[in-house]
Fold this protein.
Amino acid sequence: MTNLLEIEDLSVGFRTPRGNLQAVRNATLTLAPGESIGIVGESGSGKTVLSRAVMGLLPSTATRTGSIVYQGREISDLPRDEVRDLWGTGMAMIFQDPMTALNPTRRIGSQLSESLVVRLKMDKGAARQKSVELLRRVRIPDPEGMLRKFPYQLSGGMRQRIMIAIAVSCGPELLFADEPTTALDVTVQAQVLELLDELRAENNTAMVLVTHDLGVVAGHTDKIAVMYAGDVVEYAPTKRLYASMKMPYTEALLNSIPRLETPTGSRLPVIEGRLPDPTKEVAGCAFADRCPYVSEKCRAEKPPLMDAGDGHLYRCWFPIGGVN
């Protein structure tokens, strides 16, 4: 099967007063049509920057190297206006905060129909009818009435559904969902993720699901890339990663998820320490100062991506469970 998206040795940096900030380092990922990948990591790990680099949404202070191939076409060097032509019909993004992503001064109907008119060349009447259908599809009650409302009149869950409707309105082949369940209660989270799965299945849409929560991607992705300090530190089919994770950071992320059986009043588990300074090069493993299994070799030499077989890659000198 020909891949829909191929990212090879992608690096992204930003010019800052303190020097070059390296947000993504030599990331290599692939995505087939209809496939879903989760990109997981703490805030500052580079996962959102990676998605925005593919979409061509980086600011002018950013520098980007490496290759991004979409539908067999190299797009990393395309002019911005040609990349913009891919938005909506080729690729689309559900942004992290729907309150800031939606224009607070425009009604929902105006924002939803805009892409239909611009990208699909619909007239206003057809765009309005399609907008109602989209709102109904994302389970918005009274879709006709919703068109007249402003974002501030809606709950977080309703705003997120509006963002999903806008993102899928033109039938994109690749959908980026950047923390689509952040700040939503667990019931609404489950509804949003279920909705994304349904829309993907209907249109055979590939999806990149960006999150800090390994629990979110468990049942909604085909494979997972774990990022830390700009590096992909583990990359595997979803089921294999949960059955046999190798990277201590992946284990730490999983252990930090609150569990129902945890007694009330218990201290929530955290990953002690913090990410290294992204403007400075680290000689060894970037996770060394926070890793419970650290050795001198970890601090002295940066581990390469190693192959555990069956598409499972990891970046660790002393993997959990040893080498298969």
About this structure: DSSP finds twelve helices and twelve strands in the chain. The mean pLDDT is 92.
